Amino acid sequence: MKIKDVAKEEFITGSLSCAGCGNLLAVRLALKALGKRTIIIIPAGCLSAVTCFCPQIPFRVPMFVSPFAATSAILQGVSTGFEFRGIKDINVLGIGGDGATADIGMASFSDAIVSASRFIYLCVDNEAYMNTNVQSSATTPTGAITTTTPFPDTMQETRLSKKNLFSIAVAHKIPYAATASVSYPLDYYEKVLKAARTDGPSFIHVQIPCPPGWGFPTEKTIEIGRMAVESSMWHLLEYKDGKVRFTHVPKKRIPISEYLKAQARFRRMKPDDIAHLQSMTNEQLAALEANQDKTPL
Amino acid sequence: MGEKKFITGNSAVAAAVKLARVGVIAVYPITPQTPIAERLATFVSTGELNSKYIRVESEHSALSACLGACMAGVRPFTASSSQGLAYMHEILAYASGGRYPLVLAVVNRSLAPPWSIWGEHQDSIQERDTGCIQLYVETAQEALDTTIQAFKIAENSSVFTPVMVCLDAFHVSHTEELVEIPDQADVDRFLPPFQTSMLLDPDEPKSLSIGASGKQYMTWRFQQYQAIKTAEKVIQEANKEFESIFGRDYGGLVDAYRCEDADCIIVIMGSFAGVARDTADMLRLNGIRTGVLKIRAFRPFPNQVISDYLNSAKWVLVIDRDLSFGNEGAVCSEVRGALYGLDHAPAITNFIAGLGGADVTAQDIRKAVQEMIKVTDVTERHIIFQFMDADK
Prior knowledge:
The structure holds two protein chains of two kinds. Chain A is 36% helix and 16% strand. By secondary structure, chain A is α/β, with parallel strands linked by helices. Chain A has a single domain (19-290), classed as Rossmann fold (3-Layer(aba) Sandwich), CATH 3.40.50. In chain A, helix 3 (71-84) runs parallel beside helix 5. Chain A is globular and about 60 Å long. By secondary structure, chain B is α/β, with parallel strands linked by helices. Chain B folds into two domains: 3-246, Rossmann fold, CATH 3.40.50.970; 254-391, Rossmann fold (3-Layer(aba) Sandwich). Chain B is built from twelve helices and 16 strands. Chain B has helices spanning 9-19, 34-46, 59-71, 82-97, 122-125, 140-154, 184-190, 214-246, 273-285, 303-310, 330-339, 362-372, and strands at 3-7, 24-27, 52-55, 76-80, 103-108, 133-136, 163-168, 177-181, 207-208, 254-257, 264-268, 290-295, 297-299, 315-320, 347-352, 382-385. In chain B, the strands form three sheets. In chain B, strands 3-2-4-5-7-6-13 form a seven-stranded mixed sheet, sandwiched between helices. A six-stranded mixed sheet of chain B has the order 10-12-11-14-15-16, sandwiched between helices. A two-stranded antiparallel ribbon of chain B has the order 1-8. In chain B, helix 9 crosses helix 12. Chain B is globular, with a radius of gyration of 21 Å. The termini of chain B are far apart. Chain A binds chain B through residues 36-39, 41, 48, 52-54, 57, 59-67, 69-70, 72-85, 87, 90, 107-108, 110-111, 115, 117, and chain B through 23-24, 26, 51-52, 54-58, 60-62, 64-74, 76, 90-91, 94, 199-202, 204-213, 216. Strand 2 of chain A pairs parallel with strand 9 of chain B.
């Protein structure tokens, strides 16, 4: 598909988000792909903070603001309710941040994705609790400064790697899972369409660069997202029919230092840390390439 | 006329859920609620009940899934106890704040530590301020009948608030009684199809449970307050209408026994009301004119009705199977509040008893009453703990 094939209709217009917000772009594109017959469940997080306050609600589809940890259970409930009523043409979409998914909502997420319920879970990942002033989450990458990891190179609390939600979903044998980036809108858009066609739960983990949280100029959101993929700090993957594959392989590869140095949050990483992270990144890429088109355990 | 069967309180609740034609069931197991979850699962898998059963990983998710089903336009049901109810806490307040008409059964069990699977009211009492309606029942029959009424109350458009049906662990949940199972046709006549205004409908898009501030927030809360106050009337009407169809009357908000001429009134909730009535009869034989006021609706709390029953008594014994640490039993504090400002208020004694499933016998209650009538100062906060008198 081409960019001109993206639906013209808008379902979210006007919000209180920061300039250059990757989150709103991800939601805007997902709603274009899914269309009018969609209902959305949004837990606490950046998205609800900038969209849910009366009278400035920008959604043109039904929306429910969910308790933080309850997103997946509510998706299951709504989906089961529609099924009971014989309603089959409504997309049930949950949009949780990294904290709502990888931290507090993990138990209900894990439960819901082994169910037979038809819903799409979109994790919009800006890699920290951004709307409450950048506290670290389970998906905060190694070496990133947050307000709860102010000196990540010296703190034991710093994680060695971000929690791999895609692998977790795959381990549940979810019918469809993907990773995506707002910097690759067509790849992402097509994945949302595939998720909508899935008979059962589906999961998309989309990376959404965050100018204030990551520390880069607001006009560089797309560029930063692209650098994440080019440096192999983020991959565009898909799990379908029991196999994992890359949906996009960047033409050029860049060292991770280019990606890290473009953001203020990694400024405390020392050359040794970067070299170590580079070797870990290389190993991970090699493992993914070796396992491409194979059925994971 | 319905069919009569020997069944437990848990089975009675499950029977009511079936008769109410619940569409989505999401329950997480916990003793002593588990037989409800098991029975309902059997109904669904044998096709006796046309419903979807969601296996969830926690009580937090069980109630969340019910909330979801509600927004899809389907009547949901869940049940819990003790630690499980505590784990649901966040969603209880969310469901009432968002005005979702849910019904849940609470099989009242103690909270740990010390660990105990036995009965008391602490679990639901500590959910008092979540904004849910709370109805306490005495028998398996009342559990069945109240569950059916609960759907009607919760789904009343001027209420739209969750209702908890609270039944005592084991004394009600696991004890077989002769219960009349109403006919489906009669229940259908009493209980209309599910209705809610909180729908996720693409043809009529709404934003639900949104943020508000200042006057909007206050207005929202005021409406919630009014809805639960209105429920007082709706509970009474549901009781009356139920009685006209099924012939069983539970008194609505409270159930009074020999209170008219009583000098002493025992106030109690739940299954121990029966032993309290027996004790009242015995005390009357000893010349102490005693009555029993069983509170059925703890939220909304029927202040006026309670005051009307208690204002001519000299002594009131409030039996609490719960304890608000740092003060006294929660029911007692509520009763004190109801009587505040009366010209000749009775002296109130609080009897903390039956915690952790301890049996409360007629002898225990009689002893408490005999101690109570020694109190002459109505301002004294007199409190007696079961089993603790030996130290005095």
